Each structure stands twice: as structure tokens, then as C-alpha cells.
Amino acid sequence: MNPDDGFRELNRQECLRLMATTPVGRIVHTRHALPAVLPVNFCLDGGGGVLLRTAAQSELVRAVDGVVVAFEADEVDAAAHSGWSVVVTGRAAVVTDPAEHARLCLVGPRSWAPSHEEVFVRIEPELITGRQLTGGRSLYGARQPL
């Protein structure tokens, strides 16, 4: 990134802090050999793990269990031309341990579309990257008229 392009790279701690401020992100996985993006509510677990809660028989569970996925969360202020984006890349897995499932029922995310039988999916972060846009800056560092 050019130091005058208005973007700033975020470190891991900044990424996790920002992700904790928003309840919705997008999981990116493969569906029929093509990229698929699905908005989901989530929360963070210890170490930056991303937790999702979904129907046990959902297509999402079948598509992501045991595979590497990307998860993106962001916040945009269109009026100020600013915002941030964080991407977590790692292996997704359904939580199968009964004790861990019980714990997550108390502290994990609540499904916005509850179903009879729900499971938790954890994305273990192998890579966390993020960047923040400072509004009104151009490639040349000059403020653009609004």
C-alpha cells in the first residue's frame, strides 16, 4: 500500500477489536466449484476464532465443515468515505464436543433464524488481515472535494 493512498494496514489486535464491534460478516466458501458468499451473524471466540450458529442440516454446514474458508467483516461510512475491512482465513469445523457445544450455547452467537437442531461452526484463524480507509485521501494525499 502506498502511504498516501488513504489505506492503513491493521495488525491482528486491531482486526480483532474491530470485528468485535459488528454482529454480521460474510463467509466465503466453494459451492459447486464456484465462490459463494453468505452473510451471517457471528461472534469471536478466544484466540480470534470466528463462531457461527446455524441449522445442523444446512447446506452451509455441508459446504464448510473441514475446509478452508474466508470470513470477512467490515464497516463503511459512505458519507465520510471511510471504513475498515478484516478477513479471517482458516479451516472451518463443526463443534462436535458436547461440553464445548453446551458452553457455546451460553456464550456463543444466537441464530437470527433459529432452527430445531443447531450447530456451531468455528473458523480457526490461520491468517487475519485488515485495512482501514481514511476518508478524503487520494493516491497523492490531497483531500478530495465532497
What does the model show?
With 146 residues, this protein is an alpha+beta fold. It has 3 helices and 8 strands. Strands 1, 2, 3, 4, 5, 6, 7 and 8 form an 8-stranded antiparallel beta sheet that branches. The longest helix has 10 residues, at 98-107. The radius of gyration is 17 Å and the shape is globular. It starts with 6 loop residues before the first strand and ends in a 13-residue tail after the last strand. 21% of the residues are buried. The model has no long low-confidence stretch (mean pLDDT 89).
Can you give me a brief rundown of this structure?
By secondary structure, this protein is of the alpha+beta class. It has three helices and eight strands, in the order E-H-E-E-E-E-H-E-E-H-E.
How is the topology of this model organized?
Blueprint: E1 7-10, H1 12-19, E2 24-31, E3 34-41, E4 43-44, E5 50-55, H2 59-64, E6 68-77, E7 82-94, H3 98-107, E8 118-133
Antiparallel strand pairs: 1-8, 2-3, 2-6, 4-5, 5-8, 6-7, 7-8
What is the beta-strand fraction?
Answer: over 45%
Shape: globular
Radius of gyration: 17 Å
- What is the number of helical segments per DSSP (H or I, 4+ residues)? 3
Q: Report the count of strand segments.
A: 8
Task: Outline the low-pLDDT stretches.
Answer: none
H-E order: EHEEEEHEEHE
**Main sheet overview:** 8 strands, antiparallel
- Name the structural class: alpha+beta
The percent range for helix content is 10-25%
Mean pLDDT: 89
